[in-house]
Design goal:
About 25% of the residues lie in helices and about 20% in strands. The chain contains five helices and eight strands.
């Protein structure tokens, strides 16, 4: 869920409070009401998800960055398109890659334990593929000591529709 139009979880202790329980989701809807703009999907061992966030913004195209690293084809795996024109690729969690990385130069980030992705309209009907070996190229080029910045977003979904998308995503990855 978003706060004041920024990509900041409404639930401060989201890592410990996150839930796959639809009853808890309904309680959050009743409590937060119109403050909910998007739902977050925790990554890592908790949901067996490792995410690669490819951005297209600030004059940098993350897809071009991947091509410059020799990645010319993306694996067939669950994914979602993002408002910036980018994409989240979802892979099977692997404890070898249990880190979150940010790269402002490449515009390719990763999310694992203690990280999350916003839920837009994911395609979890496609099975999660194993993490590709090229991810080593991406994570080795990550910025040191980077902090995830929270950006303004313009997407606004009806909370009920957003919840349906979120719950369907949870069901698909169970």
């Amino acid at each position: 869920v978003l706060e004041d139009g920024r990509k900041v979880p409404l639930i401060k202790d989201w890592m410990n409070q996150s839930s796959n329980d639809p009853n808890v989701h309904q309680q959050w809807i009743e409590f937060y009401k119109d403050k909910i703009k998007l739902w977050g999907l925790p990554c890592g061992a908790v949901n067996n998800i490792y995410a690669v966030d490819i951005d297209v913004k600030d004059g940098i195209n993350g897809f071009d960055s991947l091509r410059s690293l020799g990645v010319n084809e993306l694996p067939t795996t669950a994914y979602q398109l993002t408002p910036s024109g980018g994409m989240h690729l979802f892979f099977q969690y692997d404890s070898q890659y249990d880190n979150n990385t940010v790269n402002r130069d490449l515009k390719v980030d990763t999310r694992s334990s203690n990280g999350f992705c916003w839920v837009y309209q994911p395609h979890f009907e496609i099975p999660l593929a194993p993490i590709p070996k090229w991810i080593d190229l991406v994570t080795k080029k990550q910025n040191k000591k980077s902090e995830v910045t929270h950006e303004q977003v313009t997407i606004q979904l009806d909370p009920a529709l957003s919840l349906d998308i979120f719950n369907n995503s949870i069901e698909a990855i169970k």
